[in-house]
Amino acid sequence: MTGSTTPNFARGTWLVAEREIMTKLRSKSFVISTLITLLAVLASVVIGSLISANPSLPTVAAVGSAVEVVESTEMFEVTAVETRAEAEELVRSEDVEAAIVPSDSAESATGLTVIGLEGTPSSVVGALSVAPEVEVLEPATQNPGLLYLVAFGFAFIFYMSALTFGLTIAQSVVEEKQTRIVEILMATLPVRVLLSGKILGNSLLAFGQIALIALLAGVGLLATGQNILLADIGPALVWFVVFFAFGFVLLAALFAASAALVSRQEDMGTVTTPIMMLIMIPFFMVIFFFENDFVLGIMSYVPFSAPIAMPIRVFLGTAEWWEPLASLAILLASTLVFTALGSRIYANGLLRMGAPVKLKDALVKQS
Amino acid sequence: MLEVQAVSRSFGDRKVLDDVTFQVRPGRMTGFVGGNGAGKTTTMRVILGVLTPTSGAVALNGAPITAADRTRIGYMPEERGLYPKMKVLEQIVYLGRLHGMSTAQAKESATTLLERLGLGERLDDTVESLSLGNQQRAQIAAALVHEPEVLVLDEPFSGLDPIAVETVSSVVKDYAAGGAPVLFSSHQLDIVERLCDDLIVIADGRIRASGSREGLREQHSEPRFELLLDGDAGWLRAEPGVTVVQFDGGYALFDVDELTTAQRVLQRAIAAGPVLRFAPITPSLSQIFKEVIQ
């Protein structure tokens, strides 16, 4: 008889991974949700550039000699009118935020009077005021609004991706158990090949999606002329992708292992909840504490939150050059440990049908 | 030759297999029968390496079986399963490739098999859209796609209609005719009786009987004969060495002390008048089965 030989580890793993990838790529819901995510990223880049490129200046009406003074500040859109009455009319009709007229009082330092409608038009007053010299002792390293966006962006992308692909792995494991094809697979391939194929396939998908998002964000920033922003985010973005790769493998192994404990999709929620917590808690911690250096510092070394927290610290500039490497080493070590544990649970759980298997049994007993 | 050597397996305190030893000879259809929970599926899982035995071993062609050997086994597990949303052909090709075939080889083999099994029209349908009987045929294709050298089939005929049983058994028999050892289990004793060359009976994790079908029959049959005469067979009662079990005019069912007695009875019957029927009574498989598992 011909044709049949043992596929080696790499080939077997790749075959399993290939099936996982093809199945996912053929799912319409996956393709559509990916497209929506990419569109959202593109939209936020474009909208961001529109907002920063066209800051709308306060509109004012100016009279007589005030016109020249006001225009020279280049901080207003000026409508020149003939009389103070006309200017007041424009303020009343809310066509302009304020009117600026030459001051009647000789004591006025600026020689101008600002006329508001209901209160002091502070943006106009601020622009015309003489400011004292300012020195900042501890300048913020990044614009707080941008920092929030970056923190939230990293946290959200990691959260979404880990959940989507983690649950995909879990579902695929349970599907194989539920349809019992797992026995054919186990008779054909070593269990570790099966597990690595699943992890590899879904990691590649998740990684591909993240890389696509990062690429699109980078290209979008360049295309809309926001080069400075890209230079700020770039290194953090690269670290994020690197941390994501390993952080995801860790979660994937846990998802596969926990799913192997049950035989039906209905029971999956029970066993995957603890892992969802491991994804959700870092997500909320980062959202709440991204401005707290101490908490962020700790989180940047905990394997489950490091993929989000460390890139944020890189972005903030609070991480020494060696810190991402140290954290990556910790992540790598825990990925190895958890993958080994996970594959043991996976192997022991696969053939047990019926009621969910107890974690202790799956860890201890050999089948 | 596939050999199971003194295999025992326990789950916790429960001993599911106890010193199980048997052989599956090349080119022979070997039926594996036993009640529910007798240990058939566990034995097959041990052969495939899905379960490791507590003690004992499995050997192929005289050497301990290796992982590489196992990929050359065609296995149909009791618990049926294919990916429900995958297309039939694609799925069988995938399984062929997992066994180390190239895509082209796997495709050719899968197409030929599926056509032979009557699924030629359904190659691009998803598995879940097939009827149960057709899913079962696809399952057979899944076990055979990589042109295995040994077949281990757990209940290959359950859930099939009589025509499908014919189709599937002819495919499997071809494998045996090609020299492959074939082990199959079934609850349908009439099918086993028709198909098997050798038979293994298991109960409570122990092998109760094994050997060729004819050998087992002889071993378990009383030397019993039936005779139908045109005239009265009353003289039979007086024959030495004969015990009449049932008697009705010209018909008699009788046991003999030795086979020559039966020949003597036949000669005498012919001398007395026309003999309509004279035959040894062989027990059916289900009779043997009931007898050995007691």
Structural class label of chain B: alpha/beta
Biggest interface pair, counts: A-B, 31 and 42 residues
Q: Please give the alpha-carbon distance between the first and last residues of chain A.
A: 32 Å
Span between termini of chain B: 30 Å
Query: Would you identify the CATH H-level superfamily of the largest domain in chain B?
Result: P-loop containing nucleotide triphosphate hydrolases
Give a short synopsis of this structure.
The complex is a heterodimer of chains A (367) and B (294). Chain A is mostly helical.
Describe the structure.
The complex is a heterodimer of chains A (367) and B (294). Chain A is mainly alpha-helical. Chain A folds into two domains: 59-128; 143-364, no CATH class. Chain A is built from 14 helices and four strands. Chain A has helices spanning 9-26, 28-53, 65-73, 84-92, 122-128, 144-178, 181-188, 191-223, 227-259, 268-289, 293-299, 306-316, 323-349, 359-364, and strands at residues 59-63, 77-81, 98-102, 112-115. In chain A, helix 9 packs antiparallel against helix 10 (268-289), helix 11 (293-299) packs across helix 12 and helix 12 (306-316) runs antiparallel to helix 13. The longest helix of chain A is centred in the middle third of the chain and has 35 residues, at 144-178. Chain A is elongated and about 95 Å long. By secondary structure, chain B is α/β, with parallel strands linked by helices. Chain B is built from ten helices and 14 strands. Chain B has helices at residues 40-48, 67-70, 88-98, 103-116, 132-144, 162-177, 189-195, 213-220, 259-272, 285-293; strands spanning 2-11, 14-24, 29-33, 55-60, 63-64, 73-76, 150-154, 182-185, 198-203, 206-212, 224-229, 242-248, 251-256, 275-280. In chain B, the strands form three sheets. In chain B, strands 6-7-8-3-9-10 form a six-stranded mixed sheet, sandwiched between helices. A four-stranded antiparallel sheet of chain B has the order 2-1-4-5, covered by helices on one side. Chain B has a four-stranded antiparallel sheet with strand order 12-13-11-14, covered by helices on one side. In chain B, a hairpin with a 2-residue loop joins strand 9 and strand 10. In chain B, helix 3 (88-98) crosses helix 4. The model of chain B has no long low-confidence stretch (mean pLDDT 88). Chains A and B meet through helix 1 and helix 7 of A and helix 2, helix 3 and helix 4 of B.
